[in-house]
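Something for you to look into today, if you have time. What I am after is a single protein written out in full by you. I want to see for myself how the chain folds. Could you add the entry underneath, on a fresh line?
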Amino acid sequence: MAIQSAEQYIVAHPSWEKELRELREMILSTDVEETIKWGAPVYTVDGKNVLSIAAFKNHCSMWFYNGALLEKNTALLENAQEGKTKALRQVRFERGEEIPLKELKKYVLEAIRNQKDGKEIKPVKAKKIKVPAEIAAAFSEDPAFEVAFDNLSPGKQREYCEHVNEAKRENTRKSRLEKIIPMVKEGKGLHDKYKNC
């Protein structure tokens, strides 16, 4: 069943119902619109995402879409993925932890003010992948290889291109190309065997 409302979301997370209700009530006392995006409550200003609340197995959280821009209210903020996440910040609450609603409201008000002032962090576009000449030549000889390569994620494409490009000797580049063609056709990434599945 798809979540249609914040109430439905809260009821679907009974172990965090009290905390989610407290957060929602505090957020709704400000100048935001409530909507559902990605199956969770999201609060917007002029159609732009400002914050959201979410429940997980071991914690619940409040997300600030441009949290990195908060200047006055930052003590509770965490970067969910250090080095990857540029703008998004969260405040996490463990089971039984008292939620500092009065303090959090300051965060919410600052985030709303930032949005109304047009402050936001624009997503960084990934650099265009430069396909090595050896791979490009193999595309024209083997169209199935090109199709399989195009179906890979940009990250996997980049890994393969860098792998071939990093070889200094022509023989090494050719050898690497021969080894990656079957992997690409299977839809595998260069380093998949080292990643936890």
